[in-house]
Amino acid sequence: MNIFEELESEVRSYSRGWPVVFDRAQGSRVFDEDGKAYLDFFAGAGALNYGHNNPVLKQALLDYIQRDGITHALDMFTVAKKNFLETFKEKILEPRDLDYKIVFPGPGGANAVEAALKLARKVTGKESVINFTNAFHGMTLGALSVTGNSMKRGGAGVPLVHATPMPYDAYFDGQYPDFLYFERLLEDSGSGLNEPAAVIVEGVQGEGGINAASLAWLKGLADLCAKHGILLIFDDVQMGCGRTGPFFSFEDAGIKPDIVCLSKSIGGYGLPMALTLIKPELDVWEPGEHNGTFRGISPAFVTATEALRTYWSDDELEKSTKAKGERIAAAFTDIVKAYPEANLVAKGRGLARGIEFESGELAGKVCAAAFERGLLMETAGPDGEVMKLLPPLTVTDDEITEGLKIIDESIATVLK
């Protein structure tokens, strides 16, 4: 028995699929303690959009630490926070004509979601929140209440209340008009639906199985919320920071949510950081009403600022991400056509891509075969039936070629 099996809880998950001890990483590669290299198409579950140990971000971090820049500051004013706020305004908000106040809710995506849910209820005085089938918003109680996965919900140990699921885009395979059920319940005084404070949605459901909502569906949802006076919370924790191409995954739909949740790659370097963006009129917090010890991690402000300056001063990363995503999509379409009897489905947007298999067992076997060949991928979906790709946005064309070759070989090994 190794030290991990001896002391670490049975709750560990990723290490079961990748049973090696990792030691270092650079770009799109991670290396185990014996020096074996793995191509990383997992990227910290979307927390490493700019790759491992990105040299530009690393230098900014080293310089900050070397000069004894303050590390921990709660929500006090710091130079690191000031630089981040100024850069976020200049590079992200102003070019998109977005007007948001910024809440620093704590270090992770669930913190951003919890803050959003609390604020929506405080602003409206209503308790109910609408979520969607196969959604994933985090593992804390509020976030779990609006999450779909039954296994994750079951871990709560208490009833998860004040949330009502509705069908996500294409849930009924186009058999019914968008929002037929939701709007009917909203407008029927006999439906029994509690009047919702907010709707929370992901533009692409990552954990839910790389389910990409159409832009028309997202626009329709925003219009429906506006019509009925419901706040729209957009969870861009995994799909934000350029994962689908634009900085926010809702940009191409032409909408401006009331509240936006960001985490994972907002810190740039894989350091903990989360933001809840709120329209100014929603900023009704009392001082200290939502707080946390680690809501001001200055090294993350430093690397986040450098990432925004380096990658979001122009549209080169956005164009590159879309082009690489289309290349992977084309390769996945060819794979689907090559195995007509397997009923595969290619899914995704930008550099969030997946192939859905008929079972979680098959998808798991493909990911295991890829790991044996030196590629890290995870599964997603309610039964783990989707082979999921989240490579760094900085992945090279040669690395994509390498990864696609491994994926092709792995699928062939499993299906043939």
TrEMBL record:
Keywords: Aminotransferase, Antibiotic biosynthesis, Pyridoxal phosphate, Transferase. CDD domains: OAT_like. SUPFAM superfamilies: PLP-dependent transferases. Its cofactor is pyridoxal 5'-phosphate. Pathway: Amine and polyamine biosynthesis; ectoine biosynthesis; L-ectoine from L-aspartate 4-semialdehyde: step 1/3. InterPro entries: Aminotrans_3, Aminotrans_3_PPA_site, Dat, Ectoine_EctB, PyrdxlP-dep_Trfase, PyrdxlP-dep_Trfase_major, PyrdxlP-dep_Trfase_small. It comes from the Bacteria. PROSITE patterns: AA_TRANSFER_CLASS_3. Gene3D superfamilies: Aspartate Aminotransferase, domain 1 (3.90.1150.10), Type I PLP-dependent aspartate aminotransferase-like (Major domain) (3.40.640.10). It is an enzyme of class 2 (transferase). Pfam families: Aminotran_3. One of its GO terms (biological process) is antibiotic biosynthetic process. Its EC number is 2.6.1.76. GO terms for molecular function: diaminobutyrate-2-oxoglutarate transaminase activity; diaminobutyrate-pyruvate transaminase activity; pyridoxal phosphate binding. PANTHER family: DIAMINOBUTYRATE--2-OXOGLUTARATE AMINOTRANSFERASE (PTHR43552), DIAMINOBUTYRATE--2-OXOGLUTARATE TRANSAMINASE (PTHR43552:SF2). Belongs to the class-III pyridoxal-phosphate-dependent aminotransferase family. This is Diaminobutyrate--2-oxoglutarate transaminase.
